[in-house]
Specification:
heterodimer; A: alpha/beta; 5-stranded parallel beta sheet; 4-stranded mixed beta sheet; 11 strands; 24% helix; globular; B: alpha/beta; 10 strands; 53% helix; 11% strand
Chain lengths: 198, 455
């Protein structure tokens, strides 16, 4: 008996439509005059908050002042200069043990001005990406010069294809599944603060 | 009355509810408009998206083979399912072999289409839908009524009552914040207890062997980052050639669906987690047959944003459940007859052919033309109701004979002015049920025109 793989592929070959050329889509004409300002506005639009600081020391002061940091008991921090952690990821073998984390402070690789999204990979998360979704609150520390205009520019700098996990996070977890009322904190972080440094 | 109109009665007979539903769904369409207008290259994106999808369809077998090769190299396992039953058997087999009895799922229209949940439940597996809207309809034992907003048909008080009955919240809750918090707590326990996570796929990339899943709640990510097993189910049409094509679709998807510039979480999976397993199930289930149809293959470009539902005057005023299919609204009415023409013969008629769906579609599917094409096909296959065919035959006979058309018009105007309005409404059939019959003019348009020209 032939495998379903063969059956499906043969059906697709028989059904083949006429050729259509693949368009070139590498760029977008969208350019913002003030990238950091536009990024900060976009973060606000996706229900996050964006704090702009000049240095890591200022970032530390800003993060310590967040209500989410003041009340946090369990903190995972991959940017200890900004806020020291109380839980070290290396000691966590089972991601379930991360339940109970109140705040995660994680470095973001770069931000996208058009939508307020920040790119992260699990290389920095030491393969414990669950922390991003389990934590009650999230702080992403992004270098101020690492901003791009649109998603086209974002993918132009990404090199996808190696094993691993990467994602864009735009604001806190949210839902509008009950009468379209926007509610922050569906399953993941109840708040997302992006600290733009420099 | 056809099957769709009959099923719509449930919503239509409660006038206040009907208007509430209409306004709620239209609100989402308005958000889409604002988001689309803010993007200067919006129309160019739609063109590009449409061409990328059509290109992919023209080389789908090759791209799938490339995707499979790359995904295997990344350490994923790839499974092929010719139909829904095989898809379900593959998923069930994977879970059984690993002794999984508790599964968390994020939104997947494909698994709805294949009726996976009841199949797994029969085998003793607890299946928890984790998207809030999907969990609500799962607890209510209903299918989703919208592909992006599964519980858009339910009022907050009803959800409060449902949660009180099913997950033990206090009675009388209706605040969306409190209800969402209750669901968060309830589902967090389920996430923590699950042994495997299942997700859909928004986009799979042939050149990298990876795929992208978009959610706002974070339920897909939570569901697959705790247990070691990730099963991702995708229809064959979810493929795109290059990573560079992703921004085109990601810039369109959330804006078209909910008016957001991007979903909160846009996750890129390339291979399994270290120490974990990733299974990708590629499903045909009628897609290759649709590809073979010159008229309808464009429907395979759909990225399931829901914009055509939100804009559709018929969807908004009849509700998702009236379609009786997994995917409702204009795109559902194009896809469903392809899967089962006899069962879904009423759906292409559940449209005013106003074309609003085609106007908002981010991948430029010619939805209203397809609906019209389906009407023709259903008629050719003898699947339209006899009354409709007789009516069309009479109209065709009269319209081909101008003298007869003029005579018929005269008769209608003459008798229409004599008969009482109540009787006329009855004679006009379904049309008159919700409308007043207008006062008929004494003279036809042609007569009126001739009179004016003489001046």
């Amino acid at each position: 008996m032939r495998s379903s793989r063969e059956t499906v592929l043969e059906r697709l070959r028989e059904a083949r439509p006429p050729a259509v050329a693949l368009p070139d889509v590498a760029t977008s004409p969208v350019r913002f005059e003030d990238l950091p300002a536009r990024f900060a506005q976009s973060v606000k639009d996706v229900a996050g908050s964006c704090v702009r600081v000049a240095s890591l020391a200022e970032a530390a002061a800003a993060v310590r002042g967040l209500p989410a940091a003041a009340s946090a008991r369990q903190i995972v921090s991959l940017v200890p200069e900004v806020l020291p952690g109380t839980v070290t990821l290396d000691s966590v073998d089972d991601p379930h043990a991360l339940e109970g984390v109140d705040l995660a402070v994680v470095p973001g690789e770069f931000g996208v001005a058009e939508n307020g999204a920040v790119w992260l990979t699990d290389a920095v998360l030491k393969q414990r990406r669950a922390v991003l979704f389990v934590t009650q609150h999230l702080v992403l520390v992004v270098p101020g010069r690492e901003l791009v205009h649109t998603l086209h520019d974002a993918y132009a700098r990404l090199r996808l294809g190696a094993p691993g996990f990467g994602l864009f996070i735009a604001g806190p977890s949210k839902t509008a599944d009950i009468e379209q009322a926007l509610v922050i904190g569906a399953h993941g972080a109840r708040s997302a603060t992006i600290v733009l440094v420099g | 009355m056809n099957a769709h109109a009959r099923a719509a009665e449930q919503l239509v007979r409660d006038d206040a509810r009907l208007h509430w539903h209409d306004a709620a769904v239209w609100n989402v369409r308005s958000k889409r408009d604002r988001a689309a207008r803010a993007v200067p290259d919006w129309e160019a994106l739609r063109d590009a998206a449409s061409r990328i999808k059509l290109h992919t369809l023209s080389r789908l077998a090759e791209y799938l083979e490339e995707f499979e090769r790359k995904a295997l190299a990344l350490g994923a396992k790839v499974h092929w399912a010719a139909d829904g039953a095989e898809h379900n058997a593959i998923v069930l087999g994977l879970l059984r072999e690993r002794g999984v009895t508790r599964l968390v799922k994020s939104k997947s229209m494909l698994t709805e289409e294949c009726h996976l949940n009841p199949e797994l439940e029969r085998a003793g597996i607890e299946v928890i839908d984790t998207d809030l809207g999907e969990r609500i309809v799962q607890l209510a034992h209903q299918p989703p009524s919208h592909i992006v907003l599964p519980a858009v048909h339910m009022k907050r008080e009803e959800i409060g009552e449902l949660f009180h009955r099913t997950i033990g919240t206090p009675g009388g809750l209706s605040d969306p914040k409190q209800l969402t918090e209750a669901a968060r707590q309830h589902l967090r326990e389920k996430f923590m207890a699950s042994q495997a996570g299942l997700t859909g796929v928004n986009f799979a990339v042939a050149e990298t062997g990876g795929f992208v899943v978009c959610t706002n709640e974070g339920n897909a990510d939570l569901g697959v980052s705790l247990p070691p097993i990730h099963i991702a189910c995708m229809g064959l049409e979810k493929l795109i050639p290059r990573a560079a094509d992703l921004p085109v679709f990601l810039r369109l998807l959330a804006r078209s669906g909910t008016g957001q510039p991007i979903t909160t979480y846009t996750s890129h999976f390339h291979g399994p987690r270290p120490g974990g397993e990733l299974h990708i199930v590629l499903v045909d289930n009628g897609r290759s047959a649709l590809l073979a149809s010159e008229t309808h293959r464009r429907a395979l470009c759909c990225i399931r944003c829901g914009a055509c539902m939100n804009t559709c005057p018929v969807y908004r005023r009849s509700g998702g459940h009236s379609y009786g299919t997994t995917v409702p609204g204009p795109i559902g009415s194009v896809l469903s007859p392809a899967a089962d023409a006899a069962r879904n013969a009423a759906l292409p008629f559940a449209s005013s052919l106003c074309g609003s769906c085609s106007d908002v579609c981010p991948v430029r599917i010619d939805l209203h033309s397809q609906l019209l094409a389906w009407r023709r096909e259903l008629d050719v296959r003898g699947l339209t109701p006899a009354a409709k065919r007789r009516g069309a035959a009479v109209a065709s006979f009269v319209l081909r004979r101008p003298w007869m058309y003029r005579l018929a018009g005269k008769m209608v105007r003459f008798f229409g002015r004599l008969l009482p309005a109540g009787l006329l409404r009855t004679l006009s059939g379904g049309w008159g049920r919700e409308r007043e019959v207008p006062t008929l003019p004494a003279r036809s348009f042609r007569e009126e025109w001739r009179g004016r020209r003489a001046l």
